[in-house]
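User: Here's a chain of 184 residues. Predict its fold as tokens.
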Amino acid sequence: MARTFDALTDELVAWIGRQPLFFVATAPLAADGHVNVSPKGLDTFRVLDPRTVAYLDLTGSGAETIAHLNENGRVTIMFCAFTGPPRILRLFGRGQVVTPDHAEWEALAGCFPDLPGARSVIRLAVERIATSCGYGVPRMDVVEERDKLIDWAERKGPDGLAAYRAEKNAASIDGLPALPTTEM
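Assistant: Prediction complete.
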């Protein structure tokens, strides 16, 4: 059932590529801080090498992951098989927030589709790779990707997104700094 790996195998990389959804979990250092778990989709995940992964972070209602990574770097990414044989895959490690003003932005952002609202790439140096059974995860079919986030970002436009991020993404719900208030 449970198994650990020294690196992402070709089989795990192929399996990851077939998953339409993943979850990102982070937490602040403060014991009374809020643990955050965020679902992600829209073809925004990439395996960069057997111990490094990244995902394209799109503008959203909060910036908990960014704030937590800026504070302590701890992150876990989880995939669940909703079709085929049951499986859960967790990638534990240290994350880095790469924003458009970072020297590596162009190279990393180029790994992903050009989606409106991209505010960062989250890169994870994987320290532990573990699978578990997933026997309790239901089987489900994906009907389609939701286009609401993309439509919303297109309607906002670059200036509207910058204003939104300055208002909603400057700090976490616990008050930790997230994105700078000046546009990247």
